[in-house]
Write a structure and sequence with these properties.
Helix content: 10-25%
Distance between the termini: 93 Å
Radius of gyration: 28 Å
Strand content: 25-35%
Largest sheet: 8 strands, parallel, barrel
Number of strands: 33
């Protein structure tokens, strides 16, 4: 009997091995359990609330009074619920930003919520977020800034010990966490316990990241680590929310200097946009972008909240390219998400549900040109339309460019195609093409690269067809495709585009003809009762223009808006640092062309400060300035420390503003400089005190409001 049992066991094991050998061998770097959970999460929100909410800054200096934190209506439940309404599955709480104020009662520093008026010093916002996430079924992560502009020990070894202890407190008291988020901003000027100085660190070695990450691994083993160099999830290299058209889940980070070890804030971050084909590590991208122009709440940006369809576009360019979308939410001074933001989030969430509610391929007949193991049922194309991301259609090892024919039997109208690989076996497919059977023949309608965990192809127009064909056009190994679907977005109009020329004339246009375009200049939403746009009109003194397209049957577009300063018709350059290149003349700084640039960049060392002085032609009441950095994704010459001056004769100047453009490299939007009080002047001067990099300055556009 024992011999029989032993023999049966051997036969059973041998059979299982023979069966398991039919599965494709894994290819390249592979995801961990935590990375799989992160990939399935898809979207989450980064919550920025703190002293900057009250100082109208993006980066606090570190000397802000903790008494600023006394919100009248703080509600973690409302904040997390707003994220959930948008279809997001988790939140990352900014527990400490660069200003150093901790939103939990930490033992590591007195600069924490216990020394604020909030709940008479008994508050703990991290605990409230944890409870809200548990009640609403949302995941939670934390971000504790490595840079601390308040701490007197920053830049010394003692601070690293403090920072690690802060992480231990967060990991121990507020788990379970799905992500530990680490910024690359570190080193520079700050308060530092009253020193008020600039401190530099060796970004490659200062934080001892391997030792720091080990704390996460021990206390939150299923949490992924996010940073410029991962090690689990990488930064995509921009704050526009876009991954590359080609975006690999594998990545090999490189330091800016040869022979150095890459680290957060010390990496060739532009390489993160596409990743590395056959990279050393499985390290997919996160696309971070704020719902508003800035990361913290600013009332002046209430009109800048991204529309539902703008968010949908970001979804396709992040989640739809195998990355994740991390959307910044900014509680206002009350301590809740503003009603404007909630409205947009909720509409976006509903739009996602409507778009992806039904996979139109379900019920179709799927025919593959090859199925692994001679049509083995375990690897057939039927798994492409189930709800499991890890069941899959696979081919024999030598078949790397198979085809799949989809017969839906009746015509279906769609504009979105979804593909997924079983990433437990690695990222295998290089490229695909999709054809539709139209007018009696196969016609190409779409192509894509780098499928990975999720790929969404958004077509420029609706396609109606009953038969489709998927062609794998490039793969180094047998495929393991887990999903094929087609979907249709709800009908909508494109929002109008608003522009102004140097004369101050406003023009409004749409991509396709519409019944009418209505606009307002008073800040109100355009309706059918608002003025109809028929031809360009003059807006010499500036203001906010809002516009919306209208079509029959009650169809309306999202609202477009642009805030304009004074018209620049009579502006002239009084004085400027010499431009070193033809075409980069000083007048480019106010030509209403966002692509042209005034540049003084040179190969040789160029001393700072540098300046440009402008005559507006007449005296104006100035309330604010605007500086738009170059828009070509380059950093050289971008001003990050400035002075603004005004004058009535062009000779005697008064300084009216100075400061820093925080985070301008990663988020190169127009930087507003609001004056403490309005000034009447005819002339103004921008003085660049410091630039991010390069020898010289660059300006895409200057505005006066």
């Amino acid at each position: 009997m024992k011999k029989f049992i032993a023999l049966a066991s051997i036969l059973c094991i041998t059979g299982l091995q023979a069966f398991s050998q039919q599965a494709p061998k894994p290819y390249g770097a592979l995801p961990t359990k935590g990375q799989l959970i992160w990939q399935e999460t898809g979207m989450y929100c980064l919550i920025h609330y703190g002293v900057d909410t009250y100082t109208d800054k993006e980066w606090g200096f570190g000397d802000e009074d903790p008494k600023l934190i006394n919100p009248s209506q703080f509600s973690a439940m409302q904040i997390v619920a707003a994220a959930k309404a948008g279809g997001f599955k988790g939140v990352v709480v900014v527990a400490k930003h660069h200003d150093g104020l901790c939103l939990w009662p930490t033992k590591t520093t007195e600069h924490n919520i216990a020394n604020t008026p909030y709940k008479n010093g008994k508050g703990d916002m991290l605990k409230e977020y944890r409870e809200a996430c548990d009640k609403l079924g949302m995941k939670m992560g934390v971000y504790c800034s490595p840079w601390d502009r308040n701490n007197a020990n920053y830049g010394k070894p003692e601070y690293v010990a403090i920072y690690r202890e802060q992480l231990r407190e967060l990991y121990t008291n507020y788990g379970p966490l799905f992500i530990s988020w680490h910024d690359g901003a570190n080193g520079g000027d700050g308060y530092y316990g009253g020193a008020r100085e600039a401190r530099t660190i060796d970004r490659s070695t200062y934080y001892g990241w391997n030792t720091t990450w080990a704390i996460t691994r021990k206390l939150q083993p299923n949490a992924v680590l996010f940073g410029d160099v991962g090690p689990d999830v990488r930064w995509v290299g921009n704050e526009r929310g876009h991954a590359g058209e080609t975006c690999w889940a594998t990545y090999t980070p490189h330091a800016p200097d040869e022979g150095k070890v890459p680290a957060n804030g010390y990496v060739k971050d532009y390489e993160g946009t596409e990743g590395t084909r056959n990279g050393k590590f499985w390290m997919p991208a996160e696309c971070d972008v704020s719902l508003r122009p800035g990361w913290f709440y600013h009332k002046t940006q209430d009109d800048g909240v991204k529309s539902p369809y703008a968010l949908l576009d970001l979804y396709y360019k992040s989640v739809g390219r195998g990355a994740a979308l991390d959307l910044g939410l900014s509680p206002d001074q009350r301590g809740i998400i503003n009603e404007i933001d909630v409205k947009s989030l909720t509409a976006f969430g509903n739009l996602l549900k409507q778009t992806f509610a039904v996979n139109l391929v379900k019920g179709a007949t799927l025919t593959a040109s090859n199925v692994r193991g001679g049509n083995n049922a375990k690897f057939g194309p039927q798994f492409l339309v189930d709800n499991d991301r890890y069941t899959y259609w696979a081919t024999d090892d030598k078949v790397t460019t198979p085809q799949l024919t989809v017969d839906m039997h009746t015509p279906k109208t769609f504009n979105v195609i979804r593909l997924r690989e079983n990433i437990k076996l690695g990222q295998r497919i290089d490229s695909v093409e999709v054809d539709a059977f139209l007018n009696g023949k196969w016609q190409p309608i779409a192509s894509a690269t780098s499928i990975g965990g999720n790929r969404l192809i958004r077509l420029t127009q609706n396609i109606t067809a009953s038969k489709l064909r998927l062609r794998i056009t490039g793969s180094p190994v047998a495929i393991a495709l887990s999903d094929f679907g087609i979907f249709k977005e709800p009908v909508h109009l494109t929002a109008p585009a608003i522009a102004r020329n140097k004369k101050g004339e406003i023009s409004i246009s749409t991509e396709a003809p519409v019944n009418s375009i209505h606009y307002t200049l008073n800040g109100q939403e355009p309706t059918l009762n608002s003025p109809v746009y028929t031809q360009p009109f003059l807006l010499g003194d500036g203001g906010v223009v809002k516009a919306r397209s209208f079509e029959g049957k009650g169809q309306v577009s999202d609202i477009s808006f642009v805030s304009f300063g004074f018209a620049k018709t009579d502006w002239k350059v009084v004085d400027s640092t010499t431009s070193n290149y033809d075409g980069n003349k000083a007048e480019n700084a106010f030509d209403e062309n966002l692509r042209s640039v005034y540049s003084t960049l040179t190969k040789e060392k160029s001393p700072l400060p540098q300046q440009i002085s402008i005559d507006m032609g007449k005296a104006q009441q100035i309330k604010a300035f605007g500086y738009l950095p170059r828009q070509d994704k380059q950093a050289d010459g971008i001003i990050d420390s400035y002075n603004f001056y005004t004058s009535n004769d062009g000779k005697t100047w008064e300084k009216v503003a100075s400061g820093e453009f925080a985070n301008i490299k990663s988020n190169p939007i127009e930087q507003p400089v609001v004056l403490s009080k309005a000034v009447n002047a005819r002339y103004f001067k921008l003085e660049a005190v410091h630039v991010i990099s390069g020898n010289g300055i660059t300006i895409a556009e200057l505005s006066v409001y």
